[in-house]
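Progress narrative, work stream C.
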Amino acid sequence: QVQLVESGGGLVQAGGSLRLSCTASGDIGRVNTMGWHRQAPGKQRELVANIQSTGDTNYADSVKGRFTISRDDAKNTLYLQMNSLKPEDTAVFYCNLNARLRSGGPSYNYWGQGTQVTVSS
């Protein structure tokens, strides 16, 4: 089965930086997109950033210019470099993988267990 394992979360002061990592394993198939979502207390889960198989990236307006998403295909690892962190970035961050087992077949979403990011003022 596909598994996603996140690491790199923690407590940081406002203005600081963190780098999140997500390593995928199992029968992944063909990757469509990989991305990071986050969910803060009392809020809905939201897209932070994703990266397509083409290498194109998307970012939430709130993180543009501060966060950078990247991947290492050889290591099956996704990264999120977070700079200039703000208290409002505090949330559980989840790694997401969208993949299909075969061309023309159905796509599936897989999620990591989440990693807590806390930014203090």
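Work stream C, second folded protein:
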Amino acid sequence: QVQLVESGGGLVQAGGSLRLSCAASGRTLVTYGMGWFRQAPGKEREFVAAISWNGGSTNYAASVKGRFTISRDNAKNTVYLQMNSLQPEDTAVYYCAAGPRHGSSAAPEYYYWGQGTQVTVSS
């Protein structure tokens, strides 16, 4: 089993930056690819970024590519999402998830999910 806890969310002005962290307990994250997803009120959960088990490959939604960076530190059992140039449309609850080793963009393929952390970007 894996337990995931996101942190680092908060309120930031447009153009600002935040770094989200996802700390895992239980099984080591080297077993899994990791993803970040987000969900705004009344909207479907959407893919943000994913990273393979060893960090060798990454994948980003077009809406965040060039602004967000996913990374992982398996020694710390932690995954990060660096978010730069934040915009109001980035406002959502952000979730990390553990899943297929290659790092899938499809939420149904993930095995474990964190509780989410709120990111609010003001204009």
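The chain has no helices and eleven strands. No further action is required on this item.
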